[in-house]
Amino acid sequence: MAKILLAEDDQAVSAFVTRALSHGGHEVTAAPDGLTALSRLAGERFDLLLTDIVMPGLDGIALALKASKDFPDMPILLMTGFAAERQRAHNLEALIHRVIAKPFTLNEICAAVDEALRA
Questions:
Q1: In terms of C-beta density within 10 A (0-12 exposed, 13-18 middle, 19 or more buried), how is residue 55 classed?
Q2: What is the pLDDT of residues 3-19, one digit of tens each?
Q3: Are 21 and 113 in contact (CB under 8 A)?
């Protein structure tokens, strides 16, 4: 079981991912945006950060950059439904484990998280 921080501004996606990962035995803390996620990172320890790229306030790439600096051993997964954002994330390969394309299935998101935690 891992403690996962999920940063996702779409309530439906957040609920879906939270349920999927919780069903897999993980403890999920959901944050509605990057700024809230950054605040949660400052106060708690997490085993993995799973973040959407496009969010208001602080986007997922900026969050990943900050998190990787402060917590270099924590795996980071990015999610996006936009090809252009996936390309932006391509430049972060040294900092992130993987970019997951939306839409994804329950099995895909769980497999990606489990793979990142094993790595």
A1: buried
A2: 999 999 999 999 999 99
A3: yes
